[in-house]
Amino acid sequence: MTISANIKIAVLGLGHVGLPTALGLAELGWPVVGADDDQAKARRIAQGEAPFYEPGMAELLQRQLGSGRFQVAGSVPDAVQQGTILFVCVGTPLGADGRVDLSQVESVARTIARNLNGYKLIVEKSTTPVRTAEQFHRTIARYSNGQHPFDVAVNPEFLREGTALQDFFHPDRVVLGVATPEARQMLLQIYQPLLERMAASGNGSAASKGSSPLMVTDLNTAELIKHSANAFLALKISFINLIADFCEATGADVTEVARGIGMDPRIGPAFLRAGAGYGGYCLPKDLKAFVRIAEEHGVDFSLLNEVGRINDARAERIVQRLRHATWVIKGKTVAVWGLAFKPHTDDVRDAPSLRIVSRLREEGASLRLHDPWAMEQFRRDFPDQPPRLVYCPSPENAAEGADALVILTEWPEYLKADLARLRESMAAPIIVDGRNLMDPAAVRALGFDYYGIGRP
Ligand code: UGA
């Protein structure tokens, strides 16, 4: 087939992956139409309202709607018909049986099949188990009338919430899993403006080192790269959390151990922050899904099962630390700073705060919660219940009258709090720092009982 100069991109699914991808591609100069089955969400986006907090997103959305390069289609079938290259960015949650629930992926495959009106390149961007692209191809072939050719490719996303746009424009790597020369050529064309931008600015991490961040491989390998990457990140975090426990038992300092081992380029300094454990929509779910699919293929992934088990135990460790600090939790007022699973997002999915707040309630504590962005999301699981559970307008207000302060997300604004005043306003000066945000010496000098993670 010949490659048309009139490429239009359709992005199917406008969540944490789809929306940054759609806006990023529009910013690169491509005409993009987005669609989502959630009509209310699609309408909000069409009106210029970002459906979740992501730094820079609201501005980029308004700019690209204004430029006309990004539009929202009335329906997914409409977007499929308009697009030549379709990026599939639908959700892939974990099912009750521990397998990835691929019903949204399967449903979109049938929608695409029924709306083929010419050649389409269908690009799987959602995180899916290895061999999903093959199945996706079979499903489209089965449900279409066979009149229009199509290709399926895999282009895993490596966007982190909170830095999604920065990651889109400065990726460490762009992985393209392709099965045909046409798919390869079209995807290279799509990413060409990004590679040129990176080469010109020299500030992409791979480009700045003089190498191209592009990698072309086959479909199954591209899918495995994505799952392996998230599993390895989870492994690093659980590893450093184990070392933190050992540091606590021996009086060593895990932040220094992490610095020391991270100086070895074979290990690297990133993802070695000990704390309350990893959360979010990706690492916990992807790790479980990866273990499951490996087992189904007869591969023993007990190593990664342990990674998950270590992470699950982190929440209880924070509760134990608080019990140790307060002697008895029952009847105490506990301030919690940080509910989002990480800073710069309002996402609380699988956040350690969910488990810890739930445990503290079981233990009989009254909670005063604060987060700069995530309180609305958290309220869905934990509605206001004064005086047992209240949401506070500022971190200082949350700490007022509290017997202890627990930090669960390392929002930079928490470092700006006037700790001397905070100490005066609290009933007891106890800080359990689940993210090692504070400087222990400085906090202790102000008279706080300070408990970090893996630090003496
Ligand atoms: C993760 C990956 O980092 C992205 O590359 C990937 O694209 C994304 O999943 C995805 O699959 O969509 P994300 O879930 O946004 O991104 O968050 P991370 O930055 O990976 O953090 C995950 C969790 O690990 C957070 O709860 C964070 O607090 C925790 N973490 C991170 C630590 O406890 N210690 C660390 O050293 C680093």
Descriptive notes:
By secondary structure, this protein is an alpha/beta fold. The chain folds into three domains: 209 residues, NAD(P)-binding Rossmann-like Domain (Rossmann fold); 73 residues, NAD(P)-binding Rossmann-like Domain (Rossmann fold); 138 residues, Rossmann fold. The protein contains 18 helices and 14 strands. The strands form three sheets. It has a six-stranded parallel β-sheet with strand order 3-2-1-4-5-6, with helices on both faces. Strand 4, helix 5 and strand 5 form a beta-alpha-beta unit. Helix 9 packs across helix 12, helix 11 packs antiparallel against helix 12 and helix 13 crosses helix 14. The radius of gyration is 24 Å and the shape is globular. The protein starts with 8 loop residues before the first strand and ends in a 5-residue tail after the last strand. Bound molecules: uridine-5'-diphosphate-glucuronic acid. Uridine-5'-diphosphate-glucuronic acid binds next to helix 9.
